[in-house]
Amino acid sequence: MVSPRGLVRRAVPAGLAAGAVVVVLAGVRPRPETPPLNRETLRRVAAAPRDAPMLSTRRPSHRGPRSTAASPLVQTPFSAIQVKVTLTGRELTRVETVVLTGENARTQALNAHAEPILRREALRAGSADIDVVTGATYTSRSYISSLQAAIDRARARRPH
């Protein structure tokens, strides 16, 4: 049989743990909804100004057939992204961000910070197997998804 003092010793830590779980769960935010791609979104993407070219290239280590492909437009809750790649042989030799929009100033600033890092790392890795940029998780994950789709399309177009 457990004494009343033993019950208190067990109840206090359990109560503290339950309280900590409640505090953590109260801070969880739901994932924002991704708006559907529609004509208005596509029109805004096409009209978005581009300050500087978003392009990185590197020399291939071997000669080989070149194939280029772009991903479909990927939309996040905050941005629209499209990436175009060139493969020389089996190597990723060019990565271009064709479309990168932001719904507001904060998103645009995050995208402007993350995009060159993602592009540079993709070229360095030679694949879409790259890390997300801290603070730009949605942009990073969507960029990586777009990059992989472009690589897959370029591989499918490559002459055998």
Which secondary structure elements does this structure contain, and how are they paired or packed?
Layout: H1 4-26, H2 39-47, E1 55-57, E2 66-70, E3 74-75, E4 80-88, E5 91-100, H3 105-125, H4 137-157
Antiparallel strand pairs: 1-5, 2-4, 3-4, 4-5
Q: Roughly how many Å is the radius of gyration?
A: 23 Å
Succession of helices and strands: HHEEEEEHH
Low-confidence stretches: none
Q: Report the total helices.
A: 4
Q: What portion of the residues fall into strands of 2 or more residues?
A: 15-25%
Overall mean confidence score, pLDDT? 81
Distance linking N and C termini: 77 Å
Main sheet specs: 5 strands, antiparallel
Would you count the extended β strands for me?
5
Structural class: alpha+beta
> Percentage of helical residues?
40-55%
Envelope shape: elongated
Quick structural overview:
Helix content is 46%, strand content 18%. It has helices at residues 4-26, 39-47, 105-125, 137-157, and strands spanning 55-57, 66-70, 74-75, 80-88, 91-100.
